[in-house]
Design goal:
Layout (H helix, E strand, L loop, with lengths): L1 E8 L2 E7 L8 E10 L2 H9 L21 E9 L11 E5 L6 E5 L3 E3 L6 H4 L2 H14 L7 E4 L3 H13 L4 E4 L3 H9 L4 E3 L6 H9 L3 E6 L4 H8 L2 E9 L12 H6 L4 E4 L17 H13 L11 E4 L3 H10 L6 E4 L5
């Protein structure tokens, strides 16, 4: 037997018993140790949004699952699996909040001793801002702005530091999030509703930002970022736009200054053969493992809360009702 967290209807969460799945050919069975909550996606799923996938239609169906970023220990492998074996500690892509799960072997990444499963459970989420940063072609010494300090925005900060961006400006209307951003790698943290917001960004960057990572997915966020751009700047649209009813003055904010708008959904990447600015998810996962193993990246230090699945209902109630939801993981190690 195993357990899973399931969204059974809008705003309804259950922890259910389930039969542990067995791996077929090319699949890997994993006993989960940690999973991470991706706040924006899981809030949309749990609330019943019809925008959880850009390729889906308008229908809203349940049940739904979350937890696509996790890590654990391999317990069995299917026929033909050669990339891992029972006992290996692994990071997973496109998993679920389930104590035992089966995933395709291409979504399993063996971890070195230097990387814990708790940290590795954050890696799939971290590939999202990493891909956006790559697509923008950040050069050492270029200025960068991150609009929105949810989990993707926060993870973008240390990755931009690794890319050599300077200064890095974090933007969020919540004071506590701005404080956290400064602790996570931002050089400055600003309120987008301050009357002198764009002027302050231009002063701090000597005329405008070279690169912006827009993570809010709302029109005000994109407009605010565009107000801050330097000529020929690049804006990665990383946040999922769940409401497309907004207006941009493209002539003055995009066309005239030569600003590039870059679609940065995590699935808008090559499946094979990484090349400059466009890496596969597999190569990005391996890069995060190497950076962590070498001590150059510490995503775990950014986590605010760790909960058992017995607390899942309270955790998701908090997620639904608090736009400042903290960076949170589930610990599955005591679940049998």
């Amino acid at each position: 037997m195993a357990k899973r967290i399931l969204f059974t209807a809008p705003r309804e969460v259950q922890v259910q018993d389930m039969t542990a799945p067995t791996p077929a050919s090319g699949e890997v069975q994993v006993q989960l140790e940690f999973s991470a909550i991706s706040g924006g996606t899981e809030r949309a799923n749990l609330s019943g949004s019809d925008t959880v996938s850009w390729v889906s239609g308008p229908e809203v169906s349940f049940p739904r699952t979350g937890g696509y970023s996790s890590a654990g220990v391999v317990t069995a492998v299917g026929e033909g699996v050669t990339s891992c074996k029972a006992g290996d500690r692994v990071a997973l892509c496109w998993s679920t909040h389930s104590s035992v799960q089966v995933v395709k072997q291409e979504n399993v990444y063996v971890l070195p001793d230097e990387v814990s499963t708790q940290t590795a459970s954050l890696f799939n989420i971290a590939t999202f801002p990493l891909a956006a940063i790559r697509k923008c072609g950040v050069q050492i010494g270029e200025s960068a702005l991150v609009m929105g300090m949810g989990i993707l925005g926060l993870f973008a900060l240390p990755l931009l530091r690794l890319a050599g961006a300077a200064p890095i400006i974090a933007v969020d209307p919540v004071a506590e999030k701005r404080e956290k951003a400064l602790a996570c790698g931002a050089d400055y943290a600003l309120d987008p509703y301050a009357p002198d917001f764009a002027a302050t960004v231009k002063r701090l960057t000597g005329g405008g930002v070279n690169v912006a990572i827009e993570v809010t997915g709302v029109g005000a966020g994109l407009n605010g970022a565009l107000d801050c751009m330097a000529r020929f700047g690049r804006v990665a649209l990383l946040g999922c736009t769940r409401n497309s009813d907004f207006t941009v003055d493209y002539y003055r904010k995009v066309h005239g200054p030569g600003v590039q708008l870059i679609g940065a959904h995590t699935q808008a990447r090559p499946q094979h053969e990484s090349h400059t600015g466009w890496w596969t998810q597999s190569d990005d996962m391996c890069a995060l493992i190497r950076l962590t193993a070498c001590g150059r990246l510490d995503l775990q230090a950014m986590v605010d809360e760790v909960h058992t699945i017995d607390e899942a209902l309270a955790v998701y109630g908090h997620l639904l009702d608090d736009p400042s939801f903290p960076l949170t993981q589930f610990d599955w190690r005591d679940v049998k």
